[in-house]
Amino acid sequence: MVTSRRDFLKQAGWTVLGGGLMASFVELPASKAHASSGDRTHLYAYVVDTHKCIGCGKCGEACRAENKVPDEFYRTWIERYTIYADGHVDVDSPHGGEKGATPIKKAHIDRSFFVPKLCNHCKEPNCVQVCPVGATYVSRQGVVLVDEKHCVGCGYCIQACPYGARFINPKTHVADKCTWCYHRVLKGLKPACVTVCPVGARQFGKVNDPNDPVGKLIKEARLQVLKPEMGNQPMVFYNGLDKEVR
Amino acid sequence: MNHTSHIIRFAVVLVAVIAGFFILRGFLVPDSFGVQGDYKYGYHRGASDAEQAALPALYTGSKKCAQCHAAETAEWQAGKHAGVECETCHGNWQAHNNNTKDKAGKDSSIEACLLCHGEVEARPADFPQIADMKKHVEDGGGAYEKGMLCVACHSAHSPQQ
After folding, report:
1. Distance to chain B for A109, nearest Cα, Å
2. Which residues are CB-neighbours of B136 under 8 A, at least 6 positions away?
3. Is A175 helix (H, G, I), strand (E, B) or coil?
């Protein structure tokens, strides 16, 4: 069979036209989007003061109760860093630090301190970018959430998170993590861990509110974030972060 | 050569496949799924947001406790534990409210106090910590007895020192 140039061009034209038409159909459902829901802002920030933390573990206990976190899984945990005179660094977090800290009797400790950790609710979250089904997202207030009804439990987000904040919940079999107690903060309450912290080592508030203690801290205090080199722009800030903290 | 019949058959199959795709898609994709705000981080099921916001809050803060326990609240506010919320030691309000006979939140054991006040190297140096109970009692001018509780000398609600 010999196709003339004219026929070839004709058929090619129809193919392109048809393809374009199909593409426009495929685009259609996506455009029913609720784009009117407004732009995303990063309303909240979380400040951890490592100078204040006493490692009592009340935050972890409250988080577990408030969010029904299964045993041996943690939405927040407290790490203890111990730096010895010979330069050796020890990091421990038995039971996520939830049952308090055991004393260390070894001598020659240069310094030792607690670092509470949780989801950093990043401005540029890796976990959201890698989700293949759109089950994890950033809310309009800038809180990174997991839709447990839509998540398929593939675990990509767990690998992508530089902070190890995510896990597969053994009850729901889908990804789970800290929500900054989304259900509380929208009601005007603080996250459970912040509410119960006896020493004010954990603080939560609005970034751009100058009357908010956290807003003031973000403006005036010299704070750091974990792993800034990852480029995720965390919204959890630390005071007194040591160079040994990872 | 006439290919019209082939093209029509192919077109019918193609249309059926495309129609099938959209019908199936209509069933499988949740109603509110789409771009909420921006595409990069807002592509999700819109209803999920409200579902998570509707979860109940168990910890309510000390104002709620003060409604019934005015005397304890006044005592607490006068002491050094004034910055510590009721629920830090007593557990969440909701559990207590669901079962008002629940006294599980009352713990006067030494362990309960030492959870915060036991001596641990990593704690801030200016935070009151007890390494040796006997020494602590005698330094304070008391007589140490075995099995002595912290609350024998200190008020848990309102410690003065």
Report:
1. 9
2. B130
3. strand
CA distance B153 to chain A (A): 21
Minimum-distance CB partner of A135 among B32, B44, B61 = B44
* Residues in chain A closer than 8 A to B60 (CB atoms): 189
Question: Using one digit for the tens of pLDDT, what is the confidence trace for A220-244?
Answer: 999 999 999 999 999 999 999 999 9
- Decide: A81 and B74 in contact? Cβ < 8 Å: no
| B143 CA: distance to closest CA in chain A (Å) | 26
- Quick one: DSSP state of residue B106? -
- Please compute the mean of the pLDDT values over residues A24-38 and round it to a whole number: 49
Domain boundary among B53, B73, B93: B53
Q: Determine contact, residues A90/A82, Cβ cutoff 8 Å.
A: yes
Give the residue from chain A lying closest to B23, CA to CA: A29
**DSSP bridge partners of A112:** A82
Give the span between the Cα atoms of B130 and B113, in whole angstroms: 10
Residue A31 confidence class, pLDDT cut points 50, 70, 90: very low
- Name the minimum distance, in Å, from the CA of B94 to any CA of chain A: 10
Nearest to B57 by CA among A82, A207, A196, A150: A196
pLDDT digits (tens, 9 = 90+) for A175-222: 999 999 999 999 999 999 999 999 999 999 999 998 999 999 999 999
Task: State the best of A95, A147, A157, A181 to mutate against chain B, taking most chain B CBs within 10 Å.
Answer: A147
Contacts of B36 in chain A (CB under 8 A): 33-35, 37, 137, 140
Across the interface, of A112, A128, A187, the residue whose CB is closest to B121 is A112
Neighbours of A83 (CB within 10 A): 18
What is the domain extent for residue B30? 4-53
A104: in domain: no
Q: How many domains does chain B have?
A: 3
Domain count, chain A: 1
Neighbours of A117 (CB within 10 A): 22
